[in-house]
């Protein structure tokens, strides 16, 4: 799912604390939709937050005390850090439910990140490598009713 792009565009337009002028939102959305945090033209404070979001998204168990301290050092408050964790977890939940039901992209935020499009399961996470396109083709097949 690509709801992240839609949400990010909305957030930039509604929240000045991102430090991104609304007219500069699209390059940020496109870079993040590709999973390319390094190319996203964002302030250092936001980049630090997005690095932790990426860690939580990919491997939440690898989030460290040092990661959270970096956010504090960039001026993020405890309630803001907690909200980031909750929001990241909620988007992961929504995406997994949508993926499980084979819900197609609505075109809100561009392509899946390269790290997500290349493979969906690996031997490390309990399955064989399966190209995303194969998984997506299977997901679009009608599911049997119970």
Quick description:
This protein is 56% helix and 0% strand. With 146 residues, the protein is mostly helical.
What does this structure look like?
This protein has seven helices and no strands. With 146 residues, it is mainly alpha-helical. Helix 3 packs antiparallel against helix 4 and helix 3 (44-59) packs across helix 5. It is globular. The relative contact order is 0.15.
Number of helical elements: 7
Judging by the overall fold, what is the CATH architecture? Up-down Bundle
- Amount of helix: 55-70%
Q: Name the structural class.
A: mainly alpha
Taken from the alpha-carbon principal axes, the silhouette is globular
**How much of the sequence is in beta strands?**
under 5%
Low-confidence spans: 130-146
At the first level of CATH, what is the class? Mainly Alpha
Main beta sheet, described? none
In total, how many beta strands? 0
The CATH topology annotation reads as: AhpD-like
Number of domain units: 1
Distance between the termini: 25 Å
Average pLDDT level? 75
Radius of gyration over all CA atoms, rounded: 17 Å
> What series of H and E elements makes up the topology?
HHHHHHH
Which terms summarize this structure?
0% strand; globular; mainly alpha; 146 residues; AhpD-like; disordered C terminus; single chain
Topology:
Blueprint: H1 3-14, H2 25-33, H3 44-59, H4 65-73, H5 78-100, H6 114-118, H7 132-139
Helix pairs in contact: 1-2, 3-4, 3-5
């Amino acid at each position: 799912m690509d709801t992240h792009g839609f949400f990010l565009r909305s957030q930039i337009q509604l929240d000045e604390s991102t430090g991104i002028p609304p007219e500069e939102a699209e390059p940020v959305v496109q870079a993040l939709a590709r999973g390319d945090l390094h190319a996203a033209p964002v302030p250092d404070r936001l980049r630090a937050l997005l690095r932790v979001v990426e860690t939580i998204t990919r491997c939440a168990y690898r989030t460290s005390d040092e990661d959270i301290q970096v956010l504090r050092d960039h001026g993020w408050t405890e309630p803001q850090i907690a909200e980031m964790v909750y929001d990241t977890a909620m988007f992961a939940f929504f995406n997994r439910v949508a993926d499980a039901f084979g819900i197609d992209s609505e075109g809100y935020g561009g392509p899946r990140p390269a790290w997500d499009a290349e493979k969906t399961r690996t031997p490390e996470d309990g399955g064989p490598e399966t190209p995303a396109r194969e998984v997506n083709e299977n997901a679009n097949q009608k599911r049997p009713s119970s």
